[in-house]
Amino acid sequence: MEGERANVGAWTVIATLRHRPGRPTSVQVSRPGVRINIDAWSRSEGWCEHCRTRRARRTTYLLRHDDGRLAQIGSSCLADFTASARPARIHRPPARRSRTRPASGPSRPPSEYIDTRAYLAHVAQAILDFGFISASAASAQRPATWLRAAAALDHDHTPSARAWHRGQEALHWIRDELAHRGRLDDFERRLIRVLSQDRLTRRELPTAAAGVNAYHQHLRREIASRKRTDLSTADAA
Predict the structure, then answer these.
(1) Are 107 and 120 part of one and the same domain?
(2) Strands 11-20 and 23-29: what pairing?
(3) Whole-number mean pLDDT of the chain?
(4) Which of 77, 121, 142, 199 could form a disulfide with 113 if both were Cys (CB 3.0 to 4.6 A apart)?
């Protein structure tokens, strides 16, 4: 998506996303019958997948390509994708929320983009319920955590408030603490690169899930360190 100049006729504006600090994003579909995951997009941030420039945006647009791909685009980049700056008509969606369904046919792959924060909440829920299961340790009876979380997201399951909070804690730790460490291994560098974006591709889901587990391990080390400090203090007293 970055740097791509799309064919004007290949993209259609299907929704307007109005971002409000501290409040859910307002999702206004362009016409009745547009099927998108309203709940997931209501948690989206003002992020442009084309220019990837981080700045506060009040409005972005959700576009769908003829092959089924979705893209969240800022106003200044919209001209690169469609000749129309705005949908001609805005339709208020009903209260019942529907999830994105992949287009049928081998030539129409499902959308590759997944909201980072929503996915991490589902990862945290899977870890709280079943423990972390890596891709290498997974089996038919014990699915990998990343796959279990992706399935829960696809089926519109709702993670608990605790899981949502834990997922956001993990994201902030990776972006604000881990990213500023001086010495990083290959996994940590890959983790920071993947989770620096507000949307994930399907290929990035295992790495993102491993990031929540890495945060859990960080918390365990901190707790163990505090216990050792408390014991040393007690012994000295």
Answers:
(1) no
(2) antiparallel
(3) 78
(4) 199
- Tokens (6 digits) for 24: 């859910």
Assess contact for 72 and 49: CB atoms under 8 A: yes
Residues 124 and 162 in one domain: yes
Cβ contacts of 199 within 8 Å, gap of 6 or more: 44, 47, 49, 72, 113, 114, 115, 116
Q: At what angle do helices 116-130 and 205-236 cross, to 10 degrees?
A: 60
Amino acid sitting at position 198: D
Per-residue confidence (pLDDT) for residue 165, from 0 to 100: 93
* pLDDT for 47: 83
Residues 41-46: what's their mean pLDDT?
85
**Domain match, 91 and 191 both:** no
Residue 47 lies in domain: 1-111
61: tokens are 């647009």
Tell me, yes or no, whether 87 and 130 share the same domain.
Answer: no
d(CA 201, CA 215): 21
